[in-house]
Amino acid sequence: MKNRFHGKTAFITGGTGALGAAIGRRIAEEGGKIFLADLVPDKTKSVAEAFDGLKDPKILALDVTSEESWKNALECVTSESGKLDVLVNAAGVVCDGSYTIDALPSQEWQHVMKVNVDGTFLGTREAIRVMKDTGGGAVVNIGSTTAFVGSVDAIPYNVSKASVRALTRNAAFSAGKSGYKVRVNAVHPTWVWTPLVEAMLLKRFGSKEKALEFILAQHCVDRLPEPADIANAVAFLASDEASIITGSDLVVDGGRTLG
Ligand SMILES: NC(=O)c1ccc[n+]([C@@H]2O[C@H](COP(=O)([O-])OP(=O)(O)OC[C@H]3O[C@@H](n4cnc5c(N)ncnc54)[C@H](O)[C@@H]3O)[C@@H](O)[C@H]2O)c1
After folding, report:
1. How far apart are CA 233 and CA 189, in angstroms?
2. Which residues line ligand 1 (CB under 6 A)?
3. Which of 20, 53, 97, 106 could be 14's S-S partner, Cβ–Cβ 3.0 to 4.6 Å?
4. What is the band of 1 on the pLDDT scale with cuts at 50, 70, 90?
């Protein structure tokens, strides 16, 4: 185990969710001070399991779609730590229903875009505002392999993650060219069996076995990633080992986007 986050402060949105908590754990294991921020600011099962044996993280309330909420949450971080070294934008929602393009309700589009795109934009901007004045830092946005492919009936989600990908490149370029010591990168997971995915796929396939059979066939490896696989990729991009990497897309996808 390395100690890449010793003395560093990390803020993770969607932090009480499955991937957010796993990412928090990975950074905490390497010495980072962790703030988990979520619409559901409770010590959930994911957080309790992820931080078993580690110092409890700070859990903050945050609605990523609200500018005021971002300001309040980051004020808590800077008043306690004096700086922010790492922001991970992991909050996200999926579509409520399955709609082809002609049947897609505007509300469905707006809700997914508001959380996944507006939320990631606000977080990236607010973190850069803090980081540029406090010694720099790293932003890691959680996209998805769906950013690289089309969808028949989950269009808002795929477009939102493609937008996260584009936002990442543009924010990285803009921050770098402005002379700020802030890097911005994206990690794009394939399916990870989390409650978010379980709820969606059980509705569609009826059983976990059928769902796994269908989604595993999209890959060229024999397993799906675990939350820890995603956390390893995020930790690398957030760490100084990636100090030359900005604006990049790291797919963690068992070959899903190769075909
Ligand atoms: N699980 C997968 O297969 C998968 C694959 C690719 C990408 N992702 C992305 O990874 C991220 C985490 O997903 P997960 O599987 O851990 O799901 P999850 O549902 O466990 O976590 C998502 C978290 O986001 C929070 N959230 C939703 N709206 C919010 C808001 N307005 N403000 C603050 N927090 C909000 C939820 O409360 C939840 O805790 C999401 O961005 C998701 O799109 C997941």
Report:
1. 10
2. 13-14, 16-20, 38-40, 62-65, 90-93, 115, 119, 142, 144, 189, 191-192, 194-197
3. 20
4. low
The residues, ordered by sequence, that sit 6+ positions from 194 with a Cβ below 8 Å of its Cβ are: 17, 18, 19, 227
Please report, for the domain that includes residue 236, its CATH number: 3.40.50.720
When divided into structural domains, the chain yields a total of 2
Q: How far is the CA of 144 from the centre of ligand 1 (A)?
A: 11
Q: Give me ligand 1 centre to Cα 26, in Å.
A: 17
Side chain identity, residue 210: K
- Ligand 1 atom closest to the Cα of residue 116 is 41
Is 215 found in the same domain as 159? no
Q: How confident is the model at residue 111 (pLDDT cuts 50, 70, 90)?
A: very high
Average pLDDT, integer, range 203-225: 95
Task: Please tell me whether residues 149 and 242 are part of one structural domain.
Answer: yes
> Residue 15 Cα, ligand 1 centroid: separation in angstroms?
8
Containing 237, the helix (H) or strand (E) segment is: helix 227-238
Question: Do 147 and 233 have their domain in common?
Answer: yes
Q: Which residue has the tokens 């939350």?
A: 227
Q: Note whether residue 4 is domain-resident.
A: no
